[in-house]
Amino acid sequence: MKAFELKRYYAIALDPIHIGTGGYRIGRVDNTIVREPATGIPKIPGTTIEGVCRSYAFLKAMEEGKSINPVCAKGKVKSESEQPCGKCEICVTFGFSRKDRSMQAMALFSDTRILFFPVATMIGPVWVTCPMVLKDAGIKEIKGSSKEDIPKPNNNTFIVPESSKINPPEEKLNFGWLLLTQDKDNSKKTDTSKWVYYENSKQEMLKDKIPDEILSRIVIVPDNLFSTIVNSNLEVRTSVAIDPERGAAEEGALFTYEAIPRGTVFWFDVTYQNPKHFGLNDWETNLIIKTVEDGLRYFEFLGVGGMGSRGFGRLEVIGNFLPFEEYIDALERRLETLQKETKKEEIEKICEYLRGVKSKMEKDVKDIQSLIDKVNKIFPKFCR
Q: What is the pLDDT of residue 249?
């Protein structure tokens, strides 16, 4: 019995992403974003992803007609009169704390880190990365029968992979204000179409996850310049409060804030612990995965972070999502366990959910059959 399962997810920013540090700062902008302490590279903390995912997973459960206490969706309960149930998928997946007992989350989120960062150049947008970032993400390149690290560019140079569709004029390229020279010795020694990573000991091709429009415009820069390039090309916006009486800007209400730009590619891992090791005998890992991935699907529409009403936050999450059939199989096994333990109330809740699923499927089948019937009427008249 496996103790845990690790799954890799990628994400592409559909809007600028602002994960604030809280309060104002003296400097280039008033409201800054969260960064790695050692490198200064912006990130999305795992706590942010987990908290938002918990909220969205609850919304998905409500949409499916499941009866879950809204208190279970809160990360921290302030009132002693309101307590999470400790039994639903939200409590089990994301953890809970009651007056009488607590349990840690079965889903453990890593920080969401930048993999490819978009920069405007003289030849259009390119996506910048560096060997350190690729190595941290576990990305290597297939070369014959072996797998090797991505080559490193020389000082103050950049590498254009062999599969790239960009052609820097005079072998030079600007990254904002920074001008670098192409490393001709290493530029043909790597090919993004052969980059791989490992998920649950299974080899996965990066090209199957990241759009070709991005992978074909990758540029590799030295480790010591990556943070500088990223922080010099963040999006900075200015906002001001409007006085409703005068219809003009309020005095002293001007403020600036920064954000990770649209098009940035991130990666993060989620470690799914086996619930059976925590005494939850009627639960299994696939049930936890389904709950998390229900929440992750909503990031594309409802977003993450601040400034959501100003066009910020949407994040498309990409990964090997659990097939619905495997979730139903896991649900059946849970029902078998609950039946042995004679937990009738929990069995009825699951059955109520399955009735809703069955009803929706039957409606979908009916709609498809109606379209088939219409097409069949056309064939005898025109398609002989």
A: 66
Contacts of 157 (CB under 8 A, 6+ apart): 180, 181, 182, 183, 222
Strands of the sheet with 140-143, listed across from one edge: 146-148, 140-143, 195-199, 202-205
Pairing of strands 124-129, 218-220: parallel
Split at pLDDT 50, 70, 90, the class of 262 is very high
Determine the angle formed by the axes of helices 46-63 and 285-296, rounding to 10 degrees: 90
| Strand 178-182 to 157-158 pairing | parallel
> What is the rounded CA–CA span in Å between residue 146 and residue 239?
52
Q: Helices in 156-222 by DSSP H: which ranges?
A: 212-215
Dist CA 296 CA 114 (whole Å) = 18
Return d(Cα 63, Cα 82) in angstroms, integer: 22
Q: How many CB atoms lie within 10 A of CB 201?
A: 6
pLDDT tens-place string over residues 209-241: 999 999 999 999 999 999 999 999 999 888 777
Can you give the pLDDT at residue 102? 86
Distance from C-alpha of 180 to C-alpha of 186, rounded to nearest angstrom: 15
For 28-57, give one letter per residue: b (16+ CB within 10 A) or e.
Answer: ebbbbbbbeeeeebbbbebebbbbbbbbbb
Q: What is the torsional sign of CA 213, 217, 223, 227?
A: negative
**Is the CB of residue 218 less than 8 Å from the CB of residue 126?**
yes
- The model's pTM is 0.91
CA distance 121 to 173: 7
Q: What CA–CA distance (Å, rounded) separates 234 from 42?
A: 9
Q: What are phi and psi of 321, to 5 degrees?
A: -70, 145
C-alpha 12/C-alpha 338 separation (Å) is 40
Query: What percent of the chain has pLDDT above 90?
Result: 67
The pLDDT-based confidence of 26 (bands split at 50, 70, 90) is: low
